[in-house]
Design goal:
about 250 residues, alpha/beta, Rossmann fold, 7 strands
Length: about 250
Amino acid sequence: MKTNNRAASSAILCLLWLFAMPAEAAAGAIDAAVTDTSRLEEHRVRDAGRKPAEVLKLIDLAPGDAVAELAAGSGYYAAILSRVVGDRGKVYAVDPTPIFEAFPDARKTWPRFQSLDPRDNIVYSVQNMDSLRIPEPLDSALMILYYHDTIWTGEDREAMNRAIFDALKPGGQFLLVDHHGESGAPDSITHELHRMDASIVIPEVTAAGFVLEKNSKLLSNPDDPRTASVFDEAWRGKTDRFVYVFRKP
């Protein structure tokens, strides 16, 4: 009987080890990507405030994944994601058409990133987020500090959230990060402060079919009064931010 118990215990430990390894490997890939010294220095200096390794470990990100960064901007997260998913994976970096229409100089940002840190596994496009099209099912999608902008760009968030939902595989995750505004604040703060009332986000995203999986305080800052522009030097990189992870059932 003791022999059988030892054999059963060994089998259980072996199974636990096998199941643990993918998570450990994924965490290691994320850490390696973030600490890679070939990343642009202008990106790396922002890591302390953005905590990219900790943020990305909130989702099931792993080598070989297909991932989208929606509102890629300077390529900060796309560069990290590219290193994590590796040669077998793909990163779809999408910039919003309305931003380019409002700020033509924004068109220079991605080409600059590509010239300084070219990544073969990134596919770049410019699209309206409410008519988003990705050519393959995604394991995860990220929208970092852009959801508030849809208030002034006029993009249809209901259609956008459905498009993101449709782009994901069953079980796929949607990671959303943005700046907190005051509770009950009007939409006008998106122009003035680049913030938003977070209370509208969960109902809007779950209405598309998503389930809220995590509501993280990882980027919270209780000292932020939520009344200053996110570009104010006193708060830039130190704002109170909400971090939500949604999953497609």
